[in-house]
Amino acid sequence: MKLEKKRSLAARTLKVGKNRIVFNTSRLNEIKEAITKQDIKDLKESGAIGIKEVKGRRTIVKRKTRRRYGSIKKKVKGGKRKYVILTRKLRAHLKYLKQNKKITQEEFIQLRKKIRNSAFRSLAHLNEYIKETQK
């Protein structure tokens, strides 16, 4: 028994998709006799026609912002300039310390290498490091 037309009528009447309509197999003759939308509504109330629950995810999960190469917005400039200013300041201070014999030649070379590697945040940090190593 083909009930495709009845299924589409029920889907339109009950405002759901065709795949969600379920017919009670023991009451197929009653469903076959239904012609109008009111007939379909009455069959739904009596239990001859059922509706399946919606499958899948109910709530839409919002995507987090994507961090790809094109979408990362950060300032590129400024890093090198900051490095140059700090390095010059620290090297000048090292030169002053060496001239006044506060540090040895070996310490001078070692500290210059550390400055080049950006080991110090500031002049105060460099001075603190020198005090710790001389103890």
Feature tags:
50s Ribosomal Protein L19e, Chain O, domain 1; single chain; 135 residues; two-stranded antiparallel sheet; 6 helices; mainly alpha; Non-ribosomal Peptide Synthetase Peptidyl Carrier Protein, Chain A
Please, how many domains?
2
CATH topology of the largest domain: Non-ribosomal Peptide Synthetase Peptidyl Carrier Protein, Chain A
Query: What is the C-alpha radius of gyration, as a whole number of Å?
Result: 40 Å
Distance between the termini: 99 Å
Mean pLDDT: 90
Report the count of strand segments: 2
Supply the CATH architecture of the largest domain: Orthogonal Bundle
The string of secondary-structure elements, in order, is HEHHEHHH
Share of residues in helices: 40-55%
Classification by helices and strands: mainly alpha
Biggest sheet architecture:
2 strands, antiparallel
- Principal-axis shape equals rod-shaped
Low-pLDDT stretches? none
Number of helices: 6
Strand content bin = under 5%
Oligomer: single chain
> Which strand order spans the largest sheet, edge to edge or round the barrel?
1-2
